[in-house]
């Protein structure tokens, strides 16, 4: 008969082996359903790009991977819920730029870093944005838009998917560089914002390229891409920089996070598996249809990227007097 002392020694040995070899510790993950919190309403970029990853992970893991929507306060509600969840890898966060900016701006400590509350897992994609206007606005280029805005101060409005989101901050950057003023109209997600400009409730929008069908149909007019150079996905559409605002560049991004105290071995496994999914031909094709390219990276690389992005956009918000976080 095996003694209790022998069992305890064996258990301790296995635990030590797991600590010494992270692959052993993470081998059984996931053993059940994984929840992905999306801090924005369905239909936006975070949701659509996230679906490509969650679908692939569900197939790879053989476990249910659910997207749970928790919109509000420019993404802050869902981001905080994820950050305070049990750090075991079974609750993750799919967020875009805006949700992370909302978290960072809500902390009064100037030395605060997002990694205090969230463990970066991987970047999913950093797709281009497109500046579009309603056909009733008599402009076709960035230069014409700037001239029109200066000749009609306070007249133009632009819609966004929420305060502090990339669709908002892209507009803030444009105004700051061009020295013009637009009235910002925040919506509760990209879907409502798109409905707003299609209904001529707002004049302008900085939107993901999923808006292209509305441009193709003539319901909206494309002024330019927000990338520094033309994107290979839409080579015939010029950039804002080349049509009147040199040096302008703004990208949104989408990534995966876990609660900060999630074991490193689990974070690394999720990152590696997400990379497998995102590098697949199936995922690339699906993302290309959304106007995006896969861009997976390591937790460390993603963490460095996130902190640099947060510093850049918070500095612009401070200069422009923009209050983030809802």
Comma- or semicolon-separated keywords:
326 residues, alpha/beta, D-Maltodextrin-Binding Protein, domain 2, 2 domains, 5-stranded mixed sheet, 12 helices, 10 strands, globular, disordered N terminus
Descriptive account of the structure:
This protein is 43% helix and 16% strand. It is an alpha/beta fold and 326 residues long. It has 2 domains: 31-127 and 252-320, D-Maltodextrin-Binding Protein, domain 2 (3-Layer(aba) Sandwich); 129-243, Periplasmic binding protein-like II (D-Maltodextrin-Binding Protein, domain 2, 3-Layer(aba) Sandwich). The strands form 2 sheets. It has a 5-stranded mixed beta sheet with strand order 2-1-3-10-4, with helices on both faces. It is globular, with a radius of gyration of 22 Å. The model is unreliable at 1-26 (pLDDT under 50).
Short précis:
This protein is α/β, with parallel strands linked by helices. The chain contains 12 helices and 10 strands. It has 2 domains: 166 residues, D-Maltodextrin-Binding Protein, domain 2 (3-Layer(aba) Sandwich), CATH 3.40.190.150; 115 residues, 3-Layer(aba) Sandwich (D-Maltodextrin-Binding Protein, domain 2).
């Amino acid at each position: 008969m095996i003694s209790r002392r022998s069992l305890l020694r064996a258990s301790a040995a296995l635990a030590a082996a797991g600590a010494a070899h992270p692959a052993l510790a993470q081998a059984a993950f996931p053993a059940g359903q994984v929840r992905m919190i999306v801090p924005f309403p369905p239909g936006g970029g975070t949701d659509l790009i996230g679906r490509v990853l969650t679908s692939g992970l569900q197939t790879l893991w053989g476990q249910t991977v659910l997207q749970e929507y928790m919109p509000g306060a420019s993404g802050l509600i869902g981001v905080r819920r994820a950050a305070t969840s049990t750090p075991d890898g079974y609750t993750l966060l799919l967020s875009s730029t805006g949700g992370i900016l909302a978290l960072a701006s809500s902390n009064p400590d100037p030395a605060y870093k997002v990694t205090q509350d969230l463990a970066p897992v991987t970047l999913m994609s950093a797709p281009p944005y497109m500046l579009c206007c309603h056909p009733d606005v008599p402009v076709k280029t960035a230069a014409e838009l700037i001239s029109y805005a200066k000749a009609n101060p306070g007249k133009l409005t632009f819609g966004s998917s929420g305060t502090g989101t990339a669709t908002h901050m892209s507009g803030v950057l444009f105004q700051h560089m061009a020295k013009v003023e637009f009235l910002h109209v925040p919506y509760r997600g990209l879907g409502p914002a798109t409905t707003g400009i299609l209904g001529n409730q707002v004049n302008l929008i900085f939107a993901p390229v999923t808006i292209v069908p509305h441009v193709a149909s003539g319901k909206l007019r494309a002024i330019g891409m927000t990338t520094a150079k033309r994107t290979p996905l839409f080579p015939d559409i010029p950039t804002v920089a080349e049509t009147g605002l040199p040096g302008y560049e703004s990208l949104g991004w989408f990534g995966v996070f876990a609660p900060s105290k999630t074991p490193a071995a689990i974070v690394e496994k999720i990152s590696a598996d997400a990379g497998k999914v995102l590098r697949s031909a199936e995922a690339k094709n699906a993302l290309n249809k959304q106007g995006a390219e896969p861009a997976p990276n390591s937790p460390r690389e993603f963490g460095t990227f996130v902190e640099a992005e947060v510093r850049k956009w918070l500095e612009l918000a401070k200069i422009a007097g923009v209050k983030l976080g809802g």
